[in-house]
Amino acid sequence: MEGSPACESNVTVAVRVRPLNRRERDLKTKCVVEMEGNQTVLHPAGSNLGKGDSRNQSKVFAYDYCFWSMDETQSDKFAGQDIVFQCLGENLLNNAFQGYNACIFAYGQTGSGKSYTMMGSAEQPGLIPRLCSSLFERTIREQREGESFTVEVSYMEIYNEKVRDLLDPKG
Fold this sequence. Notes:
Elements: E1 14-17, H1 22-26, E2 33-36, E3 39-42, E4 59-62, E5 65-68, H2 81-97, H3 114-119, H4 127-142, E6 156-159, E7 162-165
Parallel strand pairs: 1-5
Antiparallel strand pairs: 2-3, 3-4, 6-7
Helix pairs in contact: 2-4
């Protein structure tokens, strides 16, 4: 659909850059990722390749959303948990209230920030707690007499080709 906003498509793809962790800061690691609107730019990490080598060029990728969560002091481009929820969670919730099933698929290597984006912390709740709160607040606010709702939630992890239900403490 030409010219339609990302929220109207069946799949929305978002990328988030997390802050450097303590180990990365101790090693004086340089950030090689930059966000420009809905584009993610990957810069080469100072290789020994020749100037003409294509691996020495920056790579640009476009997504529906690019969230810069690297440095909170850069408030003009910083995307906190609230921004991520506004862009992703509210549309998902609206679709759920229209009767559509919804799924959030968080993908990335270990330590890339998936759990923080999904669960967050006590001070900065992530997508899942914000979705649950908003879902039940809206259900209570909009419920009409004689109307009932059924909510099913699953929270799964796939790691080393094994599926684990994260809502079942016994595993």
